[in-house]
Amino acid sequence: MKAAIFTGASPAPNHLAIEDVPRPELIPGHVLLRVVACGVCRTDLHIVEGDLPPLRPRLIPGHQIVGDVVDGATADLPLGTRVGVSWMGGTDGDCWFCKHSMENLCDHPTFTGYTVDGGYAEFALVRADFTVPLPEGLDANHAAPLLCAGIIGFRSLRVAGVQPGERVGLFGFGSSATLAIPVLQSWGCEVYVVTRGADHRATATSLGATWVGKEDDRPPVELDRAITFAPAGKVVVDALSSLRKGGVVAINAIHLDQMPAFDYDKLLWGERQIRSVANMTRADARDFLKIAHDLKIEPRVSIFSLDDANKALLAVKDETEKGSAVIVP
Length: 329
Prior knowledge:
By secondary structure, the protein is of the alpha/beta class. It has ten helices and 17 strands. The strands form four sheets. Strands 3, 4, 5, 8, 9, 16 and 17 form a seven-stranded mixed sheet that branches. A six-stranded parallel sheet has the order 12-11-10-13-14-15, with helices on both faces. Helix 4 crosses helix 5 and helix 4 (149-160) packs across helix 9. The protein is globular. The relative contact order is 0.16.
């Protein structure tokens, strides 16, 4: 099969080598998928650029996989079933966190496209119990970005404790934030967007944000909740400075640069909170995909062939595409 391989040996912008490799062999508890589409996530960039340490000498990245079951079928997953696979590719099931309904914090997790091979390939081997059957009528290319950007954005709303009708700030406005807006609007929330890119501000305005500002602007009201999507510590402090007393900032980032010093008395006192968002659960995936289907959320996408996987990564890095990058084998 054809696959995009990361070894760490090739400098930017050609991090990935397109090679012919053996198709994965079926093992118990897994299904083999014919990959239909795989979304490109900023976490993939963190992997190939070294922000996350390499864990395998050769890796097929990609964790927003839409695929059809072609081997290892079960009663619940018959041949031809179209499923989604996300970043959380498995857990040990035995640690304290798994036993206390916090599988996203598992001590020995499997991460798709990081600890095991992912979806930048024609086929992918995945754990059967960590697949999510996709609703009928959900186009594969548009479903792929929902499987990480959408789910983790939705979990961020949960971690922040968003309640219907609240004032919610989104700091940074990439793929994940665009998918969070319709959910917030369905809950009757006011949405305040702060982002540096003019194109992103235009997108936020077109999606009906209550207010849109530049990188150093402050929302005109105190916020109940804020979610940060940019991997920059400064953005977290900016979000914190916009909160009312008792408000919460949820950091939606697997990697964050250094957090600058800030004034505790002015910004954190008053029972304000900073919370991190770590991975997602299968319940998050099921709940969000149902909401996405009900609300008819359809992200804008830019399609790349598997041969152009490096171009897809570069588009995400440079934010040159107006929508999510999706690789189609």
